[in-house]
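tool_log.txt
---
The assistant was asked to compare two proteins side by side. It first ran the structure predictor on the initial sequence, then on the second. Raw inputs and outputs are pasted verbatim so the downstream comparison step can read them without reformatting.
(1)
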Amino acid sequence: MRRAVFLDRDGTIGGTGGGIHPYDFSMYDFAPKAIKSLNEIGVKVFLFTNQTRVGRGYFTEDELLKGFKMMEQELAIHSAFLDDIYYCPHKPNHGCECQKPNIGLLLKAKEIHNLKLEECYVVGDTGGSDMLAANKAGTKKVLVKTGWGESSLSKYRDHWQGVEADYIADDLVDAVNWISNDLKKNE
């Protein structure tokens, strides 16, 4: 397995786009089914998220990890799962390599799971972090219109100037359908 789908959390699988306390995070109703669809076609699914509120003291890393467990339990109820979770807990402008749009999280997953990033997909709602990271790493780029997606296409389009999404999806279900079809074309 050399392919994977990296999913942003806030604004892509749930929430509003902005970081919220892990205990208050809830997935969109359609997110578990969309993730299960990826599981069923045999592609690895990774959560990949900036969680700068840990570094800024809004909540602890332990609370974040408990929130991830709660999300995984909710997915399990729907027979869906994440293969791994990658997150950056640092403050903005910390200078780390893991905070999107840097690609440290993608490189770490590549090494651990023996991935070919050019055969992977990044799905996110922000052009200025998700799409830029995907572009730097050479993955396919899928922007969802949920969360901050609409404003990434308009008000904040200049934050990712020169980068084009491979697909602009209404939501995660639409993104997963496009990815499934794209994978079939490349088999």
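(2)
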Amino acid sequence: MPQQVVGESLRVAIHAPAPLIRAGLAGFVAMEPRLREVPPDRSREADAIVVAVDVADASVLDLLPSLSDNPRARFLVVVSQRWQADVSAARHRGVRAVVWWDFCSPDVFVRTVRAVAGEDGTESPTRPRQTAARTPLSSREVAVLRLIAEGRQCDEIATELAYSERTVRYILYGAMKRLRARNRAHAVSYAIRAGLI
């Protein structure tokens, strides 16, 4: 993927089967002068590929390679209902962030696209990531964030990990504080992008 030059607009490809969702995401791109939409047939040139789905599962991960033949393609997945995909498999396929549609404001979208493209300095294709060393998570925090990324609720996580629901919430809020995340979706998105989970 070409390295981004400061001041140059970021190229964004959008894959969204639902016409209204696609129009909304294209509107977010059009509102931001630093972003430029590229047509789907030029996804290889995109700095970030946005994929909007209702449910993120294994079939969505299988779809990603067909959206761009660039082996270094970087994806932002916008999910409206559930995340059911394996987080490490998503990371391996190029997913660098996940945003829930309910929280996808223009500001969140632009910041996340910039992060996925590596423009904000969090991750560059030519520079090794060091985020994990700066923001270490405990094994309990990693376990809870992974299960949240899979769409589990706090009571389900408590049962699976043999903790009380209160302990799960305490661990989750500790991880959010450590990552300086505003909410659980932001914490999961950051942790996936940074390779922490």
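---
observation on (2): The chain has a mean pLDDT of 82. The first strand starts at residue 10 and ends at 15.
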